[in-house]
Amino acid sequence: MRRAAAFAIVLLAGWVAHQGVPAAGPVASAVPFALGFALIAAVLAGELVERLSLPRVSGYLLLGLVCGPYVANLITAPMARELQVFNGIAVALIAFIAGLEINVERLRPRARSLVTLSAAVLGVMYATAGVGMMPPLVSVPP
Fold first, then answer.
1. Global pTM?
2. Block means of pLDDT (10 residues each) for the chain, length 142 residues?
3. Beta carbons within 8 Å of 69's beta carbon, 6+ residues apart
């Protein structure tokens, strides 16, 4: 319950701070706040979704979607552009965390079918791409 209350307080603080910034105001001064807000809120969101038996990465992604410029707009589009430096780092960390969630022992009995499915999908993809990139058999004069 305390985590949910802390999460609500962080979201409320972000919303209040967002209301105080003029629409055409300086973006650069709000970027450190947006980064701090996103980091704290992501940790709390990850812990909350973990209690629902979901991976923490689900909370991180859901928070980014909700607080980003397309839903709640707490992190506006100009702020998001300024935070592009951290985008690659965030994607790498999310992929790393998602990889840590994989239970190899559970996948071991299904390894043969996973390899077969992967090979079939790659084979169909390369065959389709190869046919699509072939030059035409009949050339049409201009």
1. 0.55
2. 74 66 56 78 88 87 87 83 80 82 86 94 94 78 70
3. 75, 76, 77, 80
